[in-house]
Amino acid sequence: MTTAFSPTWQHAVVTGGAGFVGSHLCTALLDTGTEVTCVDDLSTGRAENIAALLEHPGFTWVEANVAEGIPVDLPTDLVLHFASPASPADYLRLPLHTMETGSLGTRHALELAHANGARFVLASTSEVYGDPQQNPQDERYWGHVNPVGPRSVYDEAKRFGEALTTAHADTKGTDTGIVRLFNTYGPRMRGHDGRAVPTFVRQALAGEPLTVTGDGRQTRSLCYVDDTVRGVLAAAAHGMRGPVNIGNPGEITMLDLARLVIILADSDSEIRFVERPTDDPALRCPDITLAHDKLGWEPRVAPVDGLRRTIDWFRAEAATGTRRTMP
Ligand code: NAD
Q1: Burial classification of residue 135, based on how many CB atoms lie within 10 Å of its CB (0-12 exposed, 13-18 middle, 19 or more buried)
Q2: Alpha-carbon span 126 to 147, nearest angstrom
Q3: Which atom number of ligand 1 is nearest to the Cα of residue 158?
Q4: Distance CA 294, CA 297 (A)
């Protein structure tokens, strides 16, 4: 299957470009000849993610909080709005920042796109479905979200961002798209960001017990980052308004994921069951019919391959860290 992605952009602004997904997007855009300005305040991102990109003549990093404004003067024809804390550990630590980034930050990113006549794509999330009462979730499902629960700062910021994006398109004619990303994993995740894959990989490589929450029967669908990036750029190039789900429909229980990581990392770690966080969704699985039919997109990387690449990257990172701290 071929994906309908034919890049025609001269210059893209990627907010959150120093983060996990954003930095892979920057790399993919540069690889296809698009100049990239990354706007990132490093609140949850890492300078290491863009260290190599800073050597590229087509790449610029602007250190700014998008909630305060986006100081980019260059003409741009694509704005990918990916700035936002994304892991529960981060948005619970940064609740107001998360809400301001999803509201004021989204407004500034939309205004930048509108002023330039550029295409705008909002990184939304499967969290807009909350603890879903239908499985799998398609884009017509309105969700089941607790508006005052601990996760609400993220879920509601993203829901507000979707509403604002829709209002901008309706009232100002801004060319907008919304991608709802489901759990994405891969190299450049932070081992302590609290998400299942980096947590399990870090623990397995350190020989520590893998901490599975609850009874481990809750499921997630895990999409390798290269697949996610291909889906986002396909939605950007297509011009669809969305929202469109981008995720891997293959569901896996957290217990099976922990067992698989132990095997692939060749680890002796045990599994330890710990308390499940409040409002942790029991199920999460995308219906990707829309992405498949409109964009010709579907994930290509099998979990075993994606997890192997992720484990290899974490191993290499740990070795670099060890070399750095050696006298
Ligand atoms: P990440 O934390 O690695 O990256 C987010 C980046 O945004 C970081 O570099 C951070 O420094 C930056 N940022 C945060 N607030 C900012 C602000 N106010 N101004 C400027 N920069 C700011 O997270 P990620 O996993 O790469 O997620 C990227 C985007 O994709 C987020 O919008 C997230 O909601 C969305 N998303 C991710 C996933 C996933 O599984 N990774 C799933 C659904 C949605």
Answers
A1: middle
A2: 15
A3: 34
A4: 8
Angle of helix 152-172 versus helix 106-116 axis, rounded to 10: 20
CB < 8 Å & 24+ apart, contacts of 53-61: 53/23, 53/26, 53/27, 56/30, 58/30, 58/33, 58/34, 59/26, 59/30, 59/35, 60/36, 61/17, 61/18, 61/37
Question: Ligand 1 — pocket residues by CB below 6 A?
Answer: 15-16, 18-22, 39-45, 65-67, 82-86, 90, 101, 105, 123, 125, 181, 183-184
ipTM of the prediction: 0.99
| Active-site residue, 154 included | yes
pLDDT of residue 296: 97
Place of tokens 């599975």: 212
Structural Rg of the chain based on CA atoms: 19
Distinct helix (H) and strand (E) counts, the chain: 11, 13
Q: pTM score, two decimals?
A: 0.94
Which tokens hold the place of 161? Answer: 């961002």
